[in-house]
Amino acid sequence: MSGFWIMVTGALVASCCGILGCFLILRRMALVGDAISHSVLPGIVIAFLVSGSRDSVFMLFGAAIIGFVTVFLIQLFQNSGVQGDASIGVVFTSLFAAGVLLISLNASQVDLDLDCVLYGEIAYVHWNQLMINGVEVGPKAVWLLGITLFLIVAVIGLFYKQFKLCAFDPALAAAIGIPVALFHYVLMGLVSMATVSSFESVGAILVVGLLIVPPATAYLLTDRLGTMIGLSLVIGVISSIAGYYTAAVLDASIAGCMVCVAGVLFLLAFLFSPSHGLVVRKLRQRASTAREAY
Amino acid sequence: MSGMLNLFTDPNLQWILIGSMLLGLSTGVIGTFAYLRKQSLIGDTLAHAALPGICIAFMLTGVKSVGYFMIGAIVAGMIATVGISWITRHSRIKQDAAMGIVLSVFFGLGIVLLTQIQHSSYGNQSGLDKFLFGQAASMTASDVYTMTGVAVLLIVACALLFKEFKLISFDSGYARGLGFSVTALEQLLLWLVTVAVVVGIQAVGVVLVAALLITPAVSARYWTDRLGVMTVLSGLFGALSGAIGTWISAGTDQLPTGPLSVLTASALFVASVLFGPRRGIVAKIVRRYSAKKEWAAENGAESLPESKTGSSVKDREVSA
């Protein structure tokens, strides 16, 4: 049963990240997820210090707030003229440094394990069951991720056209009256939500991996946004299921294996994609030079 | 407070001070080029990508030696840079996504290897994490020698290849036209960054080493438009944040040096954003205000509201 829940959690994280990652890659903001997953540290520590408990509700709340602060600060610096990638880097490292300082200032009270916060363990997902009226209704993480996924699908589904236009041509979107900045913040808010609700159960690295690698793989396979999102979902779910079984065979970290499987899938698409693959393009080039030689 | 004064007498603290300053100097200098080439997050990527290298180095040698770890990390970092250039050159995936892919896949692989080490009979692996999270306070004379060597290497390389790096930072197409091997130069620059990052990991840890590369360079960008001045300034900012971080850390019991240096660099960055001579926010406000006054003086007071709407439309465009 634990295997089932682990795969469900992995698939849910993959779905949340797969949908949002497509937009991030198109907007060239792929590393925002990485930034958010690192900068939530001070939020978690502050929530812990204020509430005094290690209840995940408080931590989630703290992390979510800092996630929004991160997004806001990145945008603020970008608007004042800092290069996009540099603005991401400056903000998340500063917040992370503040988090580390907060931990060392309160070292006697905080027994938070840094590795544990950042590299959560998906294998323990089924230990943390949600109880309703004394009946176990499934792991907390699955419910949380399910709600997040529902929200993401609802928002993206409702405003699909607007998000699509903002991703490809923000200037045109602004010209025809779409509030580009608002949609940007909504997208970043969703990314922040997905990151925060995933990282506790699966760790920052799996979030970053699933946010970037499956959408990038899908990007190499198609030219249509709808297809890209669908493919990215399929690739994400395949990675999480195949990753689980690989981890079982190798007796290794499940999250790590899921990312590795996604990496292998990316490599396959990179080499053999029918439209953009390296090998296929080389073959086509050779064929066309051969044709010219005749 | 006595610790802060001790800084100038305590030999142990002096080593840390020199080490942090040299580290800040060299990462600041090399970070300038990474920033201009829009590769600010390369530091983060390479720091994470070092993990599998460290694990493999440990598996092969079976000893917890910083020297072997550094070699492993540098080799892994170099493979990662090749991977990033390969993905961006041979597919339509952009640089940021390529960095993200390399970062997460390498780190995932590293975690898999780490669990393999834990589950097998390699014995105690606790030193591995310590290498990753960094311990500036335990810096010793030999670490400082390594850092001096690296700093000299990086600065000499940047000085010798300044013209070439300048060209590929601003106009790589032109560089290619002049007959420079742009690919080789780009790769060389990335390898220099790798060396700087791996040395930095030891002092401040995986996450914060990214800041040493970016923050001084972005701050320096606010003060000048000349690359030479910017490189020197960025190195100075890096060294200054290292020094101040060490100084504050020496004055207190439990505050680690790495995060303090990073926060000092961030403070310098905020100051630069606010008070930079031409691009700074204050300078911009002053300029806008004086332009508005000039406009009002030229056209009479009645056209003022018009200029106001004009500027707010422009603001909206910028924020969009």
Automatic annotation (TrEMBL), chain A:
List membrane-spanning regions.
6-26, 31-50, 56-74, 86-105, 141-160, 172-196, 202-221, 228-247, 253-272
GO cellular component terms attached to this protein's record: ATP-binding cassette (ABC) transporter complex
Q: Where in the cell is it found?
A: Cell membrane
Q: Name one GO biological process term.
A: response to zinc ion
SUPFAM superfamilies assigned to the protein according to its UniProt record, in alphabetical order: ABC transporter involved in vitamin B12 uptake, BtuC
Stated family: Belongs to the ABC-3 integral membrane protein family.
Official protein name in the record = Manganese/zinc/iron transport system permease protein
InterPro entries (UniProt xref): ABC_BtuC-like, ABC_TroCD
- UniProt keyword annotations, A-Z: Cell membrane, Membrane, Transmembrane, Transmembrane helix, Transport
Provide the topology term for how it sits in the membrane.
Answer: Multi-pass membrane protein
Q: Which CDD domains match?
A: TM_ABC_iron-siderophores_like
Q: Where on the tree of life does the source sit, at the highest rank?
A: Bacteria
TrEMBL record, chain B:
Q: Which Gene3D superfamilies match?
A: ABC transporter involved in vitamin B12 uptake, BtuC
List cellular component terms (GO): ATP-binding cassette (ABC) transporter complex
Determine if Cell membrane is one of this entry's keywords: yes
Tell me, in one coarse class, where this protein mainly resides: membrane
Please provide the record's keywords in A-Z order. Cell membrane, Membrane, Transmembrane, Transmembrane helix, Transport
Q: Which residues form a coiled coil?
A: none
Q: Where is this region: Disordered?
A: 295-320
Q: Which residues cross the membrane?
A: 12-34, 41-60, 66-87, 99-117, 144-162, 174-193, 199-220, 227-248, 260-277
Q: Name one GO biological process term.
A: transmembrane transport
InterPro entries hit by this protein: ABC_BtuC-like (IPR037294), ABC_TroCD (IPR001626)
Q: Indicate whether DNA damage appears among the record's keywords.
A: no
Note the topology in the membrane.
Answer: Multi-pass membrane protein
Q: Where is this protein found?
A: Cell membrane
SUPFAM superfamilies associated with the record: ABC transporter involved in vitamin B12 uptake, BtuC
| Family per record | Belongs to the ABC-3 integral membrane protein family.
What the protein does?
Answer: This protein is probably a component of a manganese permease, a binding protein-dependent, ATP-driven transport system.
Q: What is this protein called?
A: Manganese transport system membrane protein MntC
Q: Name the source organism.
A: Cohnella lupini
